[in-house]
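User: I've been going back and forth on whether these two constructs are worth ordering. Before I decide, could you fold them both?

Assistant: Sure. I'll take them in the order you sent them. The first construct and its structure tokens:
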Amino acid sequence: MTAEQNPAASATEATGVTESNGPQDHDEEAAAATESEADAVEQSDAAGEAPDEDAERVADAPSAAGTKKRRAGKAWALVAMIAALLFVGSAAFAGAMVQPYLTDRATAATKLNVARTAANAITTLWTYTPENMDTLADRASRYLSGDFEAQYRKFVDAIVAPNKQAKITNSTEVTGAAVESLDGPNAMVIVYTNTTSTSPLTKNVPSLKYLSYRLTMKRSNSRWLVTRMTTITTLDLTPKT
């Protein structure tokens, strides 16, 4: 067969390339593509490992933050508990210190009330004029109690007539009062007085006496009343004529 009869052979001869060379070139290109794909996969795997590590670090970050928050919360709870204990302790200490102070103040206030009542009682019992002598027992009764009230009224009834006749004026000034003892509703009080008496029968020359009394007092409801009175000292300072 001539070249004209075999066109394929003529084309091969003309190009200088045989049919067997085509498949070999194709295999080399495929191998190169395969290697490129393998490299791409390796690079992809390598790239994929970094995000996993970053993800682990990101996941660990909230855990560490949560641990810090829990530790901070426990610390603040401990501080709050210590502060509460200190507050309770200081309040108890303050209460222990204040209580005696309040008790002393209450006792002092009671003694002052008792002393004032005793001074008012003595002033009322031994202060009178001829004009108000008749009502002396009634005025004094608001400070007296029990048998002593009856005894004082009996005494006043006995001196009303002669004192009115002599026109005696008696004035008593309290110079001092002190609570001798205080035991619940019972008290003992010492009262110091200066008493001045005048009468036309003595040309109104004043009779001066210094007297002190011991009063036994008892609290009835909210009032302190005299249940007994005794004279402790009597000193006559009346000028001699």
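The second construct, handled the same way:
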Amino acid sequence: MLLAGAFDKYFNIMTFAPQGGQYTEVQSFVGLVASTFVVIATGISIAMLAFGFLQMATSSGDPKNAERAQRAILWGAAGILISLLAYVLKRVLLNAAGVSGVN
């Protein structure tokens, strides 16, 4: 049920497309593509973070496996941070361009 709310939020992004999904403005299409990339990048980052935690839990004290798990956790956290910054940058650029109605 938690994912259902996330998918509802994502599909609400597409509601700004006028005339039944036909894009009449380049800004609307660019906004949709940017939002899609941010959602995909965030999902991959969260999966990488979970994979790193799973590796850490199953490393059984082996330093080599623990180091690999730490790297996976670090890259997953960095990916989430970069996705957040990309979302903020998208919002700032769209607001600077005067585009409204795009999530």
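Notes on the second construct follow. Residues 30-96 form one domain. The radius of gyration is 18 Å.
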